[in-house]
């Protein structure tokens, strides 16, 4: 990988990191377990690896933005995630910020 390709990849990942948080929060207005969340995101064009998703879910829960519970479904224990009330408020504010940034970038370009 060339220096330019390496730089691009690092910047792309940095840009994507914040977008993934907003994408995950957007889908957790409805309850999901990890695999169903990955499928919901992918079906809307946002692919995410398990190695990225699960640490993100744990971090968001530790920050109080998500709640989770273990339940048995299809004879397997699965951890279901949903926005907490704080998570709902933060999501609304982040979405407003996203829309403002998106508009500004669109105007700049």
Strand content: 15-25%
Q: How many distinct beta strands?
A: 3
Residue windows where pLDDT falls under 50 for at least 5 positions: none
- Tell me the number of helical segments per DSSP (H or I, 4 or more residues long): 4
Query: Structural class of the secondary elements?
Result: alpha+beta
> If you average the pLDDT, what whole number results?
95
* Straight-line distance between termini: 28 Å
Radius of gyration: 16 Å
What is the topological layout?
Layout: H1 3-27, E1 32-33, H2 34-43, H3 50-62, E2 66-73, E3 76-83, H4 85-108
Antiparallel strand pairs: 1-3, 2-3
List keywords for this structure.
109 residues, alpha+beta, 4 helices, 3 strands, 66% helix
Give an account of the 3D structure.
The chain has 4 helices and 3 strands; from the N terminus they run αβααββα. The chain has helices at residues 3-27, 34-43, 50-62, 85-108, and strands spanning 32-33, 66-73, 76-83. With 109 residues, the protein is an alpha+beta fold.
Summarize the structure.
The chain is an alpha+beta fold. The protein is built from 4 helices and 3 strands.
